[in-house]
Amino acid sequence: MEKEEELIERLMKEDEEFKKAKQTHARLEEQLEEFNKKPFLTPNEEIEIKIIKKRKLALKDQMERILRKYR
Predict the structure, then answer these.
(1) Which residues 6+ apart lie within 8 Å of 15 measured at CB?
(2) Other C-beta atoms within 10 Å of 32: how many?
(3) Cys staple from 18: which of 1, 10, 11, 29, with CB 3.0 to 4.6 Å?
(4) Signed CA dihedral, 6, 7, 10, 11: sign only
(5) What is the 3-state secondary structure (H, E, C) of 13-57?
(6) Phi/psi of residue 38, each to 5°?
(7) Ranges of the chain with pLDDT below 70
(8) Quick one: which of 17, 33, 30, 25 has its CA closest to 57?
(9) What pLDDT is attached to residue 20?
(10) pLDDT computed for residue 70 by the predictor
């Protein structure tokens, strides 16, 4: 059985859905980091953060489903 990191690396090369989900997840994480650098947030930014977190969670669930197929 492959180690988790090896499986992820293989899926990044072989599974387009997994690759897109992982890349989008990483971009959303970068957006959250930018928000975290701000000294204060507007109400709209707080809403945007909640939306980003929900999207990240959905992508993580999607990646986990794909990983389960290959385990």
Answers:
(1) 66
(2) 14
(3) 11
(4) negative
(5) HHCHHHHHHHHHHHHHHHHHHHHHHCCCCCHHHHHHHHHHHHHHH
(6) -75, 140
(7) 1-2
(8) 25
(9) 98
(10) 87
Question: How far is residue 71's CA from residue 61's CA, in Å, rounded to a whole number?
Answer: 15
- What confidence score (pLDDT) does residue 2 get? 61
List CB contacts of 8: < 8 A, sequence separation 6 or more.
22, 67
- Strand (E) or helix (H) holding 69: helix 43-70
pLDDT (0 to 100) of residue 24: 98
What's the pLDDT score for residue 7?
Answer: 93
Q: What is the pLDDT of residue 42?
A: 97
What is the C-alpha separation between 8 and 6, in angstroms, rounded? Answer: 5
The number of angstroms, rounded, from the C-alpha of 14 to the middle of its chain's C-alpha atoms is: 18
Q: How many CB atoms lie within 10 A of CB 21?
A: 21
